[in-house]
Predict the structure.
Amino acid sequence: KPTRRFLLQGEVFKVFDGGKIRERELFLFNDLLILATPQGNKKEKFITKLAIDLANVNNTLFLSFFFLRNK
């Protein structure tokens, strides 16, 4: 089993019907994708909303649904 490596962290935005926008944070590892909600103004804590094992996912297609701004 490969060792988990951190690759990228960035902001993504969830757009709801009616145009409401919510900020989310994306954490990409070599084998895992985590989508989280930032807590507080400093963005030091997050609540995980979604965790996806990338072993069975087409990464390119999945990530094309997100607007990603690198930090």
Remarks:
- The radius of gyration is 13 Å.
- Strands lie at 6-15, 21-29, 32-39, 45-53, 69-70.
- The first strand starts at residue 6 and ends at 15.
- Residues 14 and 35 are 11 Å apart (CA to CA).
